[in-house]
Every structure is written in C-alpha cells, then in structure tokens.
Amino acid sequence: MHDSIMELMWSTGHLSGGNAEYVEQLYDQYLADPELIPEEWRSYFDQLPTIADKSSDDVSHREIQAYFRRLGKTSRFMPVLSNDVVVNSEHENKQVQVLHLISSYRVRGHQKAALDPLSLMHRERVPDLELDFHNLSPADHSTIFQTGSLHINRDTASLREIVDALESIYCGSIGYEFMHIVDLAQKQWIQKRIEPKLGNPGFPNEVKRHLLERLSAAEGLEKHLDSKYPGTKRFGLEGGESLIPLVDELIQRAGSYGVKEVVMGMAHRGRLNMLVNILGKNPADLFSEFEGRAKYKSSGDVKYHQGFSSNVMTPGGEVHLAMAFNPSHLEIVSPVIEGSVRARQDRRKDSLGHAVIPISIHGDAAFAGQGVVMETFQMSKTRAYGTGGTVHIIVNNQVGFTTSRQDDARSTEYCTDVAKMVQAPIFHVNADDPEAVLFVTQLALDFRYEFKKDVVIDLVCYRRRGHNETDEPSSTQPLMYQKIRKLQTTRALYAEKLIAAKITTEDEVSELNTSYRSALDTGSHVVKSLIKEPNVEMFVDWNPYLGHTWTPHFNTSIKLESLEALAKKITSLPDKLSLQRQVQKIADDRAKMAAGELPVDWGFAETLAYASILTTGNRVRITGQDVGRGTFSHRHAVLRDQKTEEEYVPLRSLVADPGMFCIYDSLLSEEAVLAFEYGYATTTPNALVVWEAQFGDFANSAQVVIDQFITSGEHKWQRLCGLTMLLPHGYEGQGPEHSSARLERFLQLCAEHNIQVCLPTTSAQVFHMLRRQVLCPLRKPLIVMSPKSLLRHKETTATLEELANGSFQVVIGETDENVQADKVERIILCSGKVYYDLRAERRKREIDNIAIIRLEQLYPFPEDDLRKTMEQYPNFKDVVWCQEEPMNQGAWYSSQHHMRNVIQSLNAGVNLRYAGREASAAAAAGYPELHLQQLNAFLEQALGNQD
C-alpha cells in the first residue's frame, strides 16, 4: 500500500475532504496503538519524526489534526510540518519525493553498491536512485528538506547532503538487503545501526592492525602451501582472504555474548586455511597430510573434507569450536551442523540459542543451486529444528567451477535470493574492504542475537586460481583472469591503506609476514587465542562408547513389575482429555494390554520401549512427517484433545524434564531432516534418535545422507553415530513408491560392521531391538525395514512377559508345533512380512515338512545363529531363499553368499535357490491384480513340489 495506493493518492490528488479525515483517524489510532493500523500506514507515520514522535514538544496533536484538515484542501498529500509554517505546495511535493528517494535507496541501493573487487559484476541502471525519477533535479541540491526517518542525526539537510549520505550508506562497499522483511522492528533496527555511520565504521587503529594481521595469516598460509606443495589440490582461499578476519570476529564477538560452543560447516574453498588460522590445527599435522606421512586408522578422507575441534579464549571466556566433517556434496553439511547445534543446545537446556550457535559457510554457486539450502532455511523457525538463528557466510567467487554467466548459474539477481524466503537480512560486502567486512560481521551477529533468526553475509570476492590448483581457469573465464592477474591481494591493498594513514609501517607489515612464515616453518600453532589445555567438560564424551566389538546378543530384559508399572502409568490418561473415537478405542485397548487382558500390539510395544529407555536416563527424539500419530495410525504417542486441540504426550509423564522425550511431525523433507538427525545423533551418544520415513521409499530423497554420512562416516572420519531409521517396507499392492525402502541399497553399503539392518516381525522384537540400540554401548546406525500391514496382524503380538524376559533374536527358527525337526526336508529362509504370507500358505496346504526360518537381522549377517538354527533339521535336502522384492532388489544378491557359507558347512551337497519376483526395473507392481499374481507365483516356487 505504501508504494502503491498511497503513491497513487499522492500522484492523483485524491486525498482530499473525507480522505484527509480518514488519515486523521488513522493517525489517532496510531497514537493509541500502532499495531491497530495497516503496516504500510504505520511505516509511513514512523518515517515522519515530527508526526511520528509522539513525545515531541514542537508539534501538538491538535496542530497535527489541523494539518491533516489543511491537506484535504490541497491538491497533494504533503505531510510536512515546520513550527506552524505550512510551506508552499511545490516544496511539499518535493519533500514527499525526497522521502521516496530515501526509501528507494533503502530498497535498491544495494544494486548500485561497489561490491565486486574485480569491477566485472553486471549492474543494471537503477532508475529510482536518480533524482529525475522523483521529479527532483540538481537545482534542488541546496534546498533544505526534512530527513524523515533517515538516521543521520539531523532533522533537516540539503538535498545534496541527503543524497551524499545515502550514497555513502547504501552504495559503498556494502549492499544491504533488508526491506523485504515484514517485521518493522527488524528493519528499523538495521536502519538505526547502519545509517548513523554514513558508510564509515570508524574502527580504532588497533582493530585495523588486527585486521591486517589476520589477512597476513590468511595469505601467508596459501603462499606457504603453494611454494611447498605446488600443484597439489587444496582449494585455496586466495581472493577470499577476508573470510579469516570475518570468522575470527564472529567467534570473538560470540564469546562476548556468552557463547560456549560454535559449530561450523563449510565446503572445500578455504577449509585448510580455516583449520589452521581459526581452529588452531597444527600446521605440522597439515604438512604431514600433504606429504603422506599421516597415520591412517581407516579409509580416511581427503584433507579438504576433514573436520576439527578446539577451544579458544574470547572476551567472554573459553569457547569450544567444532568444524564438521563433510563430503564433496557441498551444502549437505548445512543441516548436519544444525542438528549438532540443536543437540548441544538441548544438552545445555539452551532453548533460545544463546550458548551454542551455528556458522554455515557456503559457495555462491552451491547456495543458489542446491535444494537442501532451501530445506534448511525452511527448518530454521520450526519447533523441531530451530537453533535460534544461523550466521550464513557465502564465499562468493562469482564462478561455480567454470560457470560464471548469471543466466547459466541461476535465475535470480543474487545467489542469496533464496534466503529471502525466511526474510533473512542479506549483507553483500566487497571482500577487498576489510573494514566493511568487519562491520557487517558485527551487524550480522548482533542481529542474530536480537531477533533469533538467520542472517546472510555475502562476501563478494574472487578465486585467484582455478577450481583447484591443477585447473587452468583462463580457458573458460579469460577476461576475469586477465583482471585477477593484475589485481593486488586484499592484504596488500589494505596494508598500503594503513601505511598511507600512518597506522602502520612497511617494516611492521614485513614483520607480520616474516613471523607468520617462521611459525609455519617451525610447525607452531598460529592461533594466539588457542587454549592448549581445554576444558574437557565442553566436549561431548564418547569414551563409554569406544572400543566395543559387535555382539549379536545383548541382554535387554526388564523386570516384569517395572514394565507393568510403566504400562499402567502411560495408559492412565487425564480425565478431562477428550479423544477422537478411534483414538479412544486404541487408548482403551492399551489400558487392557497394560493389565494383561490383551496381547501387546506393535504400537504399544514400541511405546513401552521408549518408556523403558526414558527411565534409564536416556533421551528419546523422534521426527518424521507423521510420527506423532504414525503414518499408519499405530503410534499415537501424541494425543490431541478434540475440544481444545492441546497436545498430551503420555511418555512425558515418566520424566521430570519433558525435554527428555521429543517427538515432532516434521516438514515435508527427507534430505535436510535426515541430515539434521544425523548431526544430532553424532553429538548425543546417550539418546535414541529416530527418523521415520512416511514410506521407506521416500528415503530415496536423502540418499546422499545415507551414502556419505550414515554408512561411511565412521570409517572416513571416525564419527560414531547411533541414529535409527524406521523405513516402512512391505509389498501390499500399493505400487512402486509405497512398497520398498530399497533394502538392497543399504545391504550394498554394508561393510566393516558399519551399520545394522534389521527386519523385525513381532512386537517383542521391535521392543528389544529399540532397547538394544540404546542400552548396548556400541554405537552403530540402525536401519529398520519396519512393517505396515504387520502393525495390526494378530500373530505379531506378544505378552508382557515376552517383552520383559526376552532379547532381540537375530534369527527366529520354526515356531509351528506341527513342523517336526526330523521330518523337515526343505528350509525356507526369509525376512520381513513375507514370512506371514509363507506361513499362511503352508498352513493352507497342510505342509509339515518345510521349516521357515526368519532372518531378523541381515547385517551384520548372523551366520553363527543361522547355523545353530539350521542344525536342528538334520535331514534337509533343499534350501530356498524367499523374498517379496524383485530378484535384482531385496537381499538376494547381497546376502546369498552368507547363506551359502552356512549351508555348505552343514550339507555341501545342497544348493541355495531363489523364490521371488523376477527382476524388475521398478520397485513393485502398480496393479493390485498383478501384485497378487506375482505373490501366488513365488509362494508356489517356495512351497510347491520340485521336479
């Protein structure tokens, strides 16, 4: 309205008579409560200090009322007062145009700012930053106008002074984008911080000398590595050295806010420089990696994927720094660090994000091009994933590998435009102006603390070399690299500036470079704030979980009376709780299960597992798109009152701290959410962290997280993780996107005891499986092919005694009494839901010489347990592996060698054969009739006579 309707009223002279009275009424409402009037009018009144300043002695309310009445008699709406003097209509017109000009600079000044160190950035002409657009001209330069809400410590100034101030503030080395923010308080806060400076931060000389020292360190490391290891990949920071003083200031300033931990994620560019010059990694250790002298305990990873942690001293005390490990999948680390930060905040009960903050460092091409960035932004203000705001830094090289044309790289003006979706302020800054970089760094962190939301610093720099040190960039960007070759470094330019201002001398500059290179040569730490003996209490203690070997059997029993007490407690609901009819039936049935009147079904067994885990002092966190209720309405861990819609979570009644049990229906994301939960699990060893897919098939969208973190993180980076993935899996005739969690993909990734892959088939099994995941000190990701139809299958239930006294069985042998061991001639091996299809068909055919053995865990494959189970059938002559997945999917290709090993050890003359669907390009049949035909066909293969 402010830029459209009001502008129309001004330009057409329609604000007269009753309209003036309308404005007067709006103003009365504004005085009573600014929130009562439309934001556009509120913003306008705020811009007019002589009207908006309700405490002003110069202008009374009565004078304002009279003023608005006078406006109704003029051809233009010109709200300008000056000590009872009503100036002429032309001046009033121009006064409003000046206010428009100020607004234009705030909105679009960044498009004129000198952001590019190379001066190659394409900048369109911005018409509304020119005087004639606003019906002003150089002839008005000496005319005095009110400055409105422009914070330059003057109520009036000449047009020339106003324009000069606006140019200095909004078109210098910093481009501010914040007028897209809806919240007026946030916009005004930024204006009050940046406008009085007039584009000149005015730092003390000691701060400027520290900036030079940090730039010298950043450049010094790159030059040292280039001379010592020429042509070796390092993804250097040359051209973006201002990143080092930027992050240094973030950490030191965060410390002054009382921050205790900072978690950082970044891709390759500048990572080695950050590790040495910010986190304090010993240069000697880095050189050993370059020279291949590092000691490897596992597969390891390249230097520019490695993480690190250390403690540094700040004005507010000791701060723990953690740089996350991450692969070449660029932005995927962004949600991982958010999860790690949230875990640390939960541990500290830091719900506002005061004590732990995330810093996410991006590349410009990746920030614009990777969808996980959007997902991570979308998470930032949600209950489950909020961290109180992230400081995002974009190392904007203005080129993505070889793509530099804007119409190839993105469809927006800036790479940062995706951040506008959460109304994050965006500060573009020329990296060759270190003082401007320092100013926006302070501004960004202060904004994050003031408003608890994300903020973006776009560090516009360049890449002095190619994508890596072996790449020749001039073949694809010839003009850019002609310019770069002639350009002095950021450090050299800033040193010249300080020398010219007599803040330092050439000898002092030379000494900075020499002393830094000397420290590198001697292998000394180069971070002066590094704490050599850090406070170990600031580290996550993984010691209890180290050094354990895999064991398939772990005692997960619980005293029956304890289990009964837990069951009774969580089924005793408040009297006033009004539940939906079907949910009430579930609650009533669970009360009967707790009393031993009904067998325990899957949903209640799972709930009891969580209850028992909570009472051992372990946290439980569950997220996914439908986890509160459960996609298949089996869980109902969150109950909603039908009259008030308030939530009641029975499991929280077991613990004094309700934060011990967290369950959230997540946003519609798999990739970012799963990465977040991975980060959370790697930071919280004593918790059951569960992500449940709506359907297991949808884990496809998070495959990079599975491949690069969950299954390989321990062996690449020595990062333990106890994350549990519940992936609904089972062929019910629902087509290729609602059947398969792609079991074969997980099994293909299995090696070196990296993960656990389980297919539980009873409620007792899920109870013990979940307890084992937390109570056993071994920390491995648990992948569960969880059921759908089995959730309500009558034969999957168990008694409370079976839950209390048992343990997770990796192999379950034959359970039908009519199948006698010495009569068995054929053994069918299977996993998951297909067991119940096989058993039902066997009963229908009245077969008593075929035994069915369930493999409840496919990895680590339980060869010993399978051998012991098969030994019970000394007369078997035929062994069948039966699966419901197509032959090229499921467990057949990945697990048959394990089964053959067992068979050969018992009866070398018996071969293993396959019964299941034929190989298929799709995961499952989409036609129910075809699904049933395939089911009947492979049941016949498994159970029928063999000629």
Structure characterization notes:
There is one protein chain. The protein is α/β, with parallel strands linked by helices and 947 residues long. It folds into 4 domains: 5-189, no CATH class; 205-402 and 409-466 and 503-524, Thiamin diphosphate (ThDP)-binding fold, Pyr/PP domains (Rossmann fold, 3-Layer(aba) Sandwich), CATH 3.40.50.970; 560-805, Rossmann fold (3-Layer(aba) Sandwich); 812-943, Multifunctional 2-oxoglutarate metabolism enzyme, C-terminal domain (Rossmann fold, 3-Layer(aba) Sandwich), CATH 3.40.50.11610. The chain is built from 33 helices and 24 strands. The protein has an 8-stranded mixed β-sheet with strand order 3-9-10-8-7-4-6-5. A 7-stranded mixed β-sheet has the order 14-11-15-16-18-17-22, sandwiched between helices. A 5-stranded mixed β-sheet has the order 19-21-20-23-24, sandwiched between helices. The longest helix is centred in the N-terminal third of the chain and has 24 residues, at 205-228. The protein starts with a helix and ends with a helix.
Strand percentage = 5-15%
| Bulk shape | globular
Give me the number of helical elements. Answer: 33
* Structural domain count: 4
CATH class value of the largest domain: Alpha Beta
Compute the separation of the termini in Å: 83 Å
Helix/strand class: alpha/beta
| CATH domain fold name of the largest domain | Rossmann fold
Radius of gyration: 34 Å
What CATH architecture of the largest domain do you see? Answer: 3-Layer(aba) Sandwich
Poorly predicted ranges: 1-18, 49-59, 72-87
Proportion of helical residues: 25-40%
> Would you count the extended β strands for me?
24
Major beta sheet summary: 8 strands, mixed
Q: Biggest sheet: strands side by side, in what order?
A: 3-9-10-8-7-4-6-5
Mean pLDDT, to the nearest integer, reads 89
The CATH homologous superfamily of the largest domain: Thiamin diphosphate (ThDP)-binding fold, Pyr/PP domains
